[in-house]
Amino acid sequence: MAMFSVSFVKLSCSFYKYNAIFLFFVVTGSVLPQQVSRPRGVSLTNKPFYENKVTFTCLDGSLKIPFSQVNDDYCDCKDGTDEPGTAACTNGQFHCTNAGHKPLYLPSSRVNDGICDCCDTSDEYDGKVTCDNNCKELGREAKAKKIEEMQAFNEGYRIRQDYVAEGKQLRDENQVDEPPPPIDIDVEDVEGGDINPDDYPDDDYPDSYIDEEDEDEDDYSPPRRVHRHKKDDDDEMPEYDEETKVLIEIADKAREEFRVEDARYNKINTEITDLEKVLSLDLGGDNEFYFLEGKCFEYHDKEYTYKFCPFEKVSQKKSGKETSLGKWKGWEGPEGNKYSKMKYDGGERCWNGPDRSTLVNLRCGIDNVVITAFEPNRCEYEMEFKTPALCNQIIDPEALIDKHDEL
Ligand code: MAN
């Protein structure tokens, strides 16, 4: 079969908006236009192996054949490399150049199968179908998408800087230096509270004021109201005199004041414990994950609602029943990218299986959002979470472009 050769010209210009400035740059370098000739279905990378026009050596080195047997629609090489442009070898690979868009490798069975796979139409050349070359259009769309991605990365980077500043401020503000001092209420501070028990003979001492045991000095409980048993149940308690009533009022006031202060003290103590817990967390090299602490995000699929609470837990809910998919274990990204994966383990035990656990893969994005949740193995879950906290670099527009689009 006659050998076909491919000639083409590639000129590709790209138009990028970067930090509000439109930049032009040439994707493929400065040598334009360019013509490269090689057998059909061969990539530019593999071109050197097809340059000896007398003999061809299969790329796995297993056989030498006359070059005229390349693309002759008969499979000679075990690795299929003598038929890059026909469907003769079941394991062959066809390369489309797709100038203006992305090059592509196809299984050679798709050559001349009546379906247009390559946007440059090169996989359908026997005339059975007519394909339209839409590579330029696809290329434009792909590039627009890449520009969007780049802008998202750079916007994400800007947001991350805010998170870093916020995280640092919160960490500084929340440093716990000392526990709060114990409550110190002086009864004399209470209006009219100048009470001396010695002024009262035993019988006159108001019931509501005395306690049965001396208060421990370190015990901050206020005097408790003690009710003595009536000697005779039928006896009516006499009404207190005016002075006693005043004292009872003072004691009640002191008790109430203590109650309020005690509640305030306990609340502060709880806040300190919570802060200490937060401060002990690894919230990123630059505290960029600080803002995520205490927040939760949901993802709904057809069956479940997944809830992801960073640094706390992951759960799965169905018909009102919530199942734990794990509690915060730690960062599990690879070396150099530690903050790219979070591990949650010790969740609810799977029937006849392991405790449920979840791996959360983090990616750069301008919003904080769970983009997917799934169960690759029974009771082992994975989630993808987008967050600006992962946008740790400014992306150069050129870095997003395939500079190696083959000719
Ligand atoms: C529940 C869910 C599933 C899980 C099964 C295992 O239905 O938690 O995700 O696979 O239990 O029995």
From TrEMBL:
InterPro entries: Gtb1-like, LDL_receptor-like_sf, Man6P_isomerase_rcpt-bd_dom_sf, MRH_dom, PRKCSH, PRKCSH_N. It holds the Pfam family PRKCSH_1. Residues 171-240 are annotated as: Disordered. Residues 294-393 form the MRH domain. Residues 185-220 have a biased composition (Acidic residues). Keywords: Disulfide bond, Endoplasmic reticulum, Signal. SUPFAM superfamilies: LDL receptor-like module, Mannose 6-phosphate receptor domain. PROSITE patterns: MRH. PANTHER family: GLUCOSIDASE 2 SUBUNIT BETA (PTHR12630:SF1), N-LINKED OLIGOSACCHARIDE PROCESSING (PTHR12630). This is Glucosidase 2 subunit beta. It comes from Saccoglossus kowalevskii.
